[in-house]
Amino acid sequence: MRQKIVQCFALCAPLALAMPAAAQPAADRVLRVAPHADLRNLDPVSASIVITRMHGLMIYESLFAWDSKLIPRPQMVDRFEQSEDGLSWTFHLRDGLRFHDGQAVTTRDVIPSLNRWMARDTLGGKLKEYVSSLEAADERTLVLRLHRPMGLVPFALGSAVGYIPVVMREADAATDPFKAVTTTIGSGPFRFNRGEWQPGARVVYDRNPDYVPRREPADGLAGGRVVKVDRVEWHILPDPATAAAALQTGEIDIWEQPAQDLIPSIERARGIQVQNYSSLPNQALLRPNQLHRPFSDPRVRQAMALLTDQGDFLAAGFGDERFWKRCNSYFVCGSPNGTEAGAERFGRTDVEAAKRLLADAGYRGEKVVLISTHEIPYMGRMAEVAAQSLARGGINVDLQFTDWGAVSTRLQNRETNDKGGWDMFITSASGPTMQSPVTNIGTNMGCARGWVGWPCDAEAERLRAAVVDARDDTARAEATEALHRRLAEMQPYRVLGQYDQPYARRASVSPVLAAPIMVFWNVEKR
């Protein structure tokens, strides 16, 4: 296989990436990117998957934004004040904010946008528990009042994980939080070019000529979002060999998530550079649907964990061990919250213990549906390992492969598997997402309000609230450890370990910003 790929670098026919000559900007003003997946859902408040968040950050903005160290900085906000008692926050919008249709951004847009986000997101939902009112003092001044102090307000309003708190037009933000907005009118540095969108093939963004960036230097997602190209094109190339060949020949400029087994070849190729864009590793996970049996029973979820060896999954998904490590922390080993308390017994497999747990839970071989895709290679390979691993304990797995767009759509289905629902899927999330108890979407056990899989546990939610309420670092660390022990018992998902996912770019393209998610402002072609 490797020999064929290397030959493909030199011999594969050029890809049909070009636009009609009449519509094409100068080559050095078009940034061509191969993203990890196709874009199907256009609403970053109704889908938490990475590709939709990448899309959301292209065309929308939020009140705050995280810098490269995950510190929140003002973005749409010009300045803000906090009352001495910590119960009132006043935000003033900056000059020059306009939607792509020319309308000025006002607090009439901000308030319903934030309300819609708080109804969906883990961190937003936690903020909502503290909010007593959200009101407009005038068209550019917003006042947030709290029942009790919460120091994470700017952090929450700048979130780049889960469902993100983007500001939409008032009419769009009035959409039911559990229905996707299909319009794409934001106020961000790029405009979505719907006319040239070809689902499954290409997504196009044009520079927003009316966008006014902040004056501060870019840092992570914060600071000046200066667009240095006229157009960004995402070319959907699910076959890794094809993407590698396109990068080698210059038909794409950036490969967002190169296949791990091809990285050694890519690193040796002339004119190609491989590097990380996040300081924290990603976390891989096996997520069960906890609305229905058998995974509504925590004993079955514990059995799932005892049947799955992280090394098997990580080796299948990411190959070379220099890219991955075992870790049983929900909050990422190496992060400030990276405890493994309570998860010690899941460091090794124990088939007999898993069988006893399944028997105690009354599992009798009912079919469970594991949905996955080969479009994102690690997912498909790890899904095959999951089916084999769970079968050792007697779990009857029906492994079903489709394209990633169909998987992400099916994940919203809350019915049983015989009615189009699902029971398990494999995915990953960024270290910045998972390292904090307030942003880790998988550990939100708030029932219907949580992420797909919808786990319920009042005790875990009480312990998570204690983390938010902690007054100092010592108390917060103690609360985080107590929460982690409960999560290890409840197993809202099986942590499959962590891995680094570098990106690859042509040397003629400047590096992307070190950020929680890949963005394409401040990138230029030389």
TrEMBL record:
Residues 72-435 form the Solute-binding protein family domain. It holds the Pfam family SBP_bac_5. Keywords: Plasmid, Signal. It is found in: Periplasm. GO terms for cellular component: ATP-binding cassette (ABC) transporter complex; outer membrane-bounded periplasmic space. Residues 1-23 form the signal peptide. Its main location: periplasm. SUPFAM superfamilies: Periplasmic binding protein-like II. Belongs to the bacterial solute-binding protein 5 family. This is ABC transporter substrate-binding protein. It comes from Roseomonas gilardii. One of its GO terms (molecular function) is peptide transmembrane transporter activity. InterPro entries: Peptide/Ni-bd, SBP_5, SBP_5_dom. GO terms for biological process: peptide transport.
